[in-house]
Amino acid sequence: MHRDSQARPVRFSAGTAAPRTALPAGACDCHVHVYDSRFPATPGARLLPPDASVKDYRALQQRIGTTRTVLVTPSTYGTDNRCMLEALASLGSDARGVAVIDGSESDAELQRLHAVGVRGVRLNLSLGVSGSVDLLRPLAHRIAPLGWHLQLLMAPDMLAMQGEVLRQIPVPLVFDHFGRIAPALAGRHPAHALLLDLLQAGRAWIKLSGGYIVSEHYLVDDPALDALAAGYLRAAPQRVLWGSDWPHATASSGLQPMPDDARQIDRLNDWVQQNGGPTTLQCVLVDNPAALYGFAPLASS
Q1: Which terminus, N or C, of the chain has the lesser number of Cβ atoms within 10 Å?
Q2: Which residues, listed in sequence order, are joined to residue 81 by a DSSP beta bridge?
Q3: Residue pLDDT, tens place only, 65-94
Q4: DSSP letter at 3?
Q5: Listing from the earlier edge strand, what are the strands of the sheet with 95-99?
Q6: Rounded distance, CA 111 to CA 130, Å?
Q7: pTM over 0.90
Q8: What is the pLDDT of residues 17-34, one digit of tens each?
Q9: CA distance 71 to 95
Q10: What backbone phi and psi angles, to 5 degrees, belong to 130?
């Protein structure tokens, strides 16, 4: 797909230009949230961003060239998935969902979520206010019959302490935001070694999302991200995903600068050029998401 350079301002994204990188057909953004004040925030929520709609996100897709989407229920709503599910219905067959549950849901409710496109659950032990590390095993066993994955976000020290548990989890694991590994911890912290082991063993996937979150300077252009991203790509290119993290709740909440999503695409391209080039870009943006989330094969042109 060739992208022109026409200015396209998009809500909750810095810059206006399209990426320099031409994306393959079926490119998927694997980490997106939507927010709507019609749905109340869970008590104690730490991030309370402004409304960010499917319409707003469609404008971002037009700018950066992605066509598939994975919606994730954000920490703001706790275990209330209604906002995510409404957006999922609006986006249709080119979208999948990652819900937040507490494990008490009925089989019928989980089957209903599966029928509308949910393919995993998230346990956010970083900014979330629902769930605890004690839910790792129960949630995994609850969702295993559905073929879902367990998406995790936790601090490196906690992650390293759960290594034995994670090696025994009966479902695929997905770690978002670079596994919460700061570039300075790469090759030093046992959590980074654990992630690489899980990736190479085919037990986990990693999202190259939120680079600006783990960067010491809160910037996707931070050159320190290069080695961290390259390490994941070398370890298991067939297990790497990409996500924008739009609408960047930490940025809209004033915790860091608003990233440029076109620049995020180009940074991904920088990383894959050193690790397989266009073949790896196709793998990260199209083939890997299709395998994990169950997207239909692309129609022949």
Answers
A1: C
A2: none
A3: 999 999 999 999 999 999 999 999 999 999
A4: -
A5: 28-32, 68-72, 95-99, 118-124, 149-153, 173-175, 204-208, 240-242
A6: 22
A7: yes
A8: 999 999 999 999 999 999
A9: 7
A10: -125, 145
Q: Please name which of 234, 125, 151 lies closest in space to residue 186, comparing C-alpha atoms.
A: 234
Q: Which residues contact 154 (CB under 8 A, 6 or more apart)?
A: 123, 125, 126, 133, 162, 180
d(CA 225, CA 216): 10
Q: Which residues contact 109 (CB under 8 A, 6 or more apart)?
A: none
Q: How far apart are CA 116 and CA 236, in angstroms?
A: 30
28 torsion bin: left (phi>0), alpha (psi -120 to 50), beta (else): beta
157 catalytic per annotation = no
How would you label 197-225 residue by residue, b for 16+ Cβ within 10 Å and e otherwise? ebbeeebbbbbbbbbbbbbeebbbbbebb
